[in-house]
Write a structure and sequence with these properties.
Number of strands: 10
CATH architecture of one domain: 2-Layer Sandwich
Number of helices: 7
CATH class of one domain: Alpha Beta
CATH topology of one domain: Alpha-Beta Plaits
Largest sheet: 4 strands, antiparallel
């Protein structure tokens, strides 16, 4: 319901949408904000670009933010931009930029990303951490697995995930022994699946019952 309401309010976006429109990228230190905008404008309408600079010297740290008007545009930029940018969704603004930059450097310098992998973490209560607190890497796909303590109703679950454009099918299954709910969701693009996962992982349906949404291998080429 709150997703539908936020869509209907044309004058402002809800907080979650705002947190899904900013991406964080690693760039050459020679880049200006105009260079950054030029490289990422093909993926959607950019609200602003900013380059993180050393407070003492004023030199670029080789990191920048790009803020899009729509979450789907940010997801497309992450999915389609050159892997050298190591694009991820930016942390919410309530986390200090210094700690985010440190985490980002630590995660990206340890290993090169393989295929289309992204360190996901938007809502802290739904994030998993290893013992060294590095973020878990997930392989992106167009297919999602949805798990619940309660059984699903096919029509209701379809209607919920159909709020995100591009839904191809919703296959609801039920475990006869535990009565828990399980479903496989597939979208036409990985960008739609990314958006659906962020919006609906942890969503209470019905109230008091949180959904668990993860990516499933869909057999597609990871480089694609």
């Amino acid at each position: 319901v709150f997703i539908a309401q936020s869509r209907a309010s044309g004058s402002h976006r809800d907080v979650e949408d705002e947190e899904l429109t900013r991406i964080f990228v690693m760039i050459p230190k020679s880049y200006t904000e105009d260079d950054l905008r030029e490289k990422f404008k093909m993926y959607g309408d950019i609200e602003y670009c900013s380059i993180i600079k050393n407070k003492t010297t004023g030199e670029s740290k080789g990191l920048g933010y790009v803020r899009y008007l729509k979450p789907s545009q940010a997801a497309r930029a992450i999915e389609e931009c050159d892997r050298s940018y190591r694009a991820i969704l930016a942390e919410p603004k309530n986390k200090t930029s210094e700690s985010f930059e440190h985490d980002y450097y630590s995660n990206n310098m340890k290993q090169e990303p393989r295929g289309n992998t992204l360190p996901f973490c938007v809502q802290p209560e739904f994030c998993g951490f290893e013992k060294n607190e590095s973020r878990i890497q997930e392989s992106v796909s167009k297919r999602l697995s949805v798990v619940s303590r309660l059984p699903f109703i096919q029509e209701q679950l379809f209607a919920l995930f159909d709020l995100v454009p591009g839904l191809e099918y919703c296959d609801v299954q039920r475990d006869p022994y535990t009565n828990s709910g399980y479903a496989v969701i597939q979208y036409s693009t990985a960008a739609s699946a990314i958006y659906a996962k962020y919006k609906l992982h942890g969503f209470e349906y019905p109230p008091g019952n949180r959904l668990t949404v993860i990516f499933l291998e869909d057999g597609s080429d990871s480089s694609e």
